[in-house]
Design a protein that fits this description.
The structure is a homodimer. Chain A is an alpha/beta fold. In chain A, about 40% of the residues lie in helices and about 20% in strands. Chain A has two domains: about 180 residues, inorganic pyrophosphatase (n-terminal core) (Alpha-Beta Complex); about 110 residues, DHHA2 domain (Diaminopimelate Epimerase, Chain A, domain 1, Roll). In chain A, a hairpin with a 4-residue loop joins strand 8 and strand 9. In chain A, helix 3 runs antiparallel to helix 4 and helix 4 runs antiparallel to helix 5. Chain A is globular and about 60 Å long. The first copy, chain A, starts with a strand and ends in a 6-residue tail after the last helix. Chains A and B meet through strand 5 of A and strand 5 of B.
Chain lengths: ~300, ~300
């Protein structure tokens, strides 16, 4: 049985895309496949699973050498189980930059495209067979695209993502604004999480000069729910950074509706990075960055020390 | 201007595929592109260029940082110019295993498929626009596929390669056996090359245990023309190995028509590797390996010490 999975700390795309591709492999390609998760998925992904009537996929606890796998939504070995290069990687479908490090035993199917969402690429790869997709698969595709594009607000959004989402919504008779509002409300309900869990929810490690940062992003329609816990979040940062071998945690609280990010700046190092990277002058322990919504397009590329 | 190129020591696929993709980018996608070579192409590729009436592409001598490039027929930085990670890599189209090492600045178009030939993948990617391809582009595609599959004899050949080659031949009114015979005759005419040049013509470095081998392959319909120069080839091996930081050169002379390889074994280390890897008992300074035609499928995977 082929295991299909995305990255650690699964968001909606890393939860939904494995389900989509496992359906395609099993039902259209006659290759039995199972979607699995690398950890508990976030609250938005949980909403999407319930909304489109999927069981929550099993969490992968063990990856024996030689297991046939399809990797989706990442090509970064740091976001995958330790033994990934000993698995039998059959295919990779992703929309992130090539980071190097994954190796395959033989030539395999790799499709990476500069689109906002893995599910958009899958829609293209599945092609005419989309007509055979059940409602839940099409719905999950739509949810993945709305999630990764923040309902088309993110600068990662391409015309292709927008057109495919609209075609899916028309086909399903779904109101995009209404579905997105429900998804973002689910994502914004983070009251159940500890400060450390919030910092780890959607984080990528990135080196700037001789320092390493854990760059955490929380996309929300209720930024106050997070920012009101600032003291608690700041207190949790050193522990979370150390756990990951990073020097500092940078937390960006992204207001989906106002289309801006609030970056917490509890240390002189963070203030220095913020001033240099975003060309702002900082006065206090946080800064608002208007228009900043995408780690990939607007944060990682400008970070400097 | 986008530069499109394959690997060092260009064979027919690494010469033809850049021409095909540069046509597609320039004429169909309205993105001006130029095919270039990373060195002199082999005699078969030269024949294909003449046969389908192309000028020989320029040889790339300099790759300034930031140059927009499309890489075809490899994803291995060792087979590409030193500054490749400082270029602006727009896309990769390949049919080899992912080796790791290439990095891209942002998400880009990457298509790797387990087919015998890059041109086969391009035929699929170009899709309906193939109807707009001129005769030379279609002919070069056919030549690339016949070259990489050794006229469908290589075990790397897939049904997809075979079907697309047949469709191209039917469209062009070309007899496959006749075209392949001319191509292989051109490839087999290696009288102009020195022994060292022959050893370097189609070589990949590969580590086995704590030893590194330069695995050279010469595909030919006239193996005697090469094997009659055995003493000269053996004498050139230590110099070529040293130049590449390898311990030894393994030379496989592949008889395309008899579908067998002759491996030269001038040293005890080479004899030991041959016996262990191919499960043969060696008596003398060469061994014939029936059915062995593909470095990728039949040599690299079995090499052991």
């Amino acid at each position: 049985m082929i295991k299909v999975f995305g990255h650690f700390s699964p968001d909606t795309d890393s939860t939904g895309s494995p389900l989509i591709w496992a359906w395609y492999l099993s039902e259209i390609q006659n290759q039995p496949a199972q979607a699995v998760l690398l950890g508990e998925c976030n609250t938005e992904a949980q909403f999407a699973l319930r909304h489109w009537e999927f069981e929550q996929p099993e969490i992968l606890t063990d990856l024996p050498a030689g297991t046939p796998v399809v990797i989706v939504d990442t090509n970064n070995p740091a976001e995958l189980p330790e033994g990934i290069n000993d698995a039998d990687i059959l295919a990779i479908i992703d929309h992130h930059k090539l980071v190097g490090g994954l190796e395959t035993r033989g030539p395999i199917d790799i499709t990476i495209r500069p689109l906002a969402c893995t599910a958009t690429i899958m829609y293209q790869l599945i092609g005419a067979d989309m007509a055979r997709a059940p409602r839940g698969i099409k719905g999950m595709m739509l949810s993945c695209i709305l999630s990764d594009t923040l309902e088309f607000r993110s600068p990662t959004t391409t015309d292709t993502d927008r057109e495919i989402a609209q075609a899916l919504a028309d086909d399903l008779g779904v109101d995009i604004a209404d579905l997105a509002a429900q998804m973002f409300a689910a994502k914004s309900d983070v009251s159940a999480f500890s400060a450390a869990e919030l910092l780890k929810m959607d984080a990528k490690k990135y080196a700037v000069g001789d320092k390493t940062f854990r760059i955490s992003v929380l996309e929300t329609t209720s930024p106050d729910q997070i920012l009101s816990r600032k003291a608690e979040l700041v207190a949790a940062m050193p522990g979370v950074a150390a756990e990951d071998g990073a020097d500092e945690v940078m937390l960006f609280v992204i207001d989906i509706l106002k289309e801006e990010a609030t970056l917490l700046l509890p240390t002189p190092l963070l203030r220095a990075v913020a001033e240099k990277s975003f060309n702002v002058s900082v006065d206090g322990d946080q800064v608002v960055l208007p228009g900043v919504m995408s780690r990939k397009k607007q944060i990682i590329p400008v970070l400097s020390l």
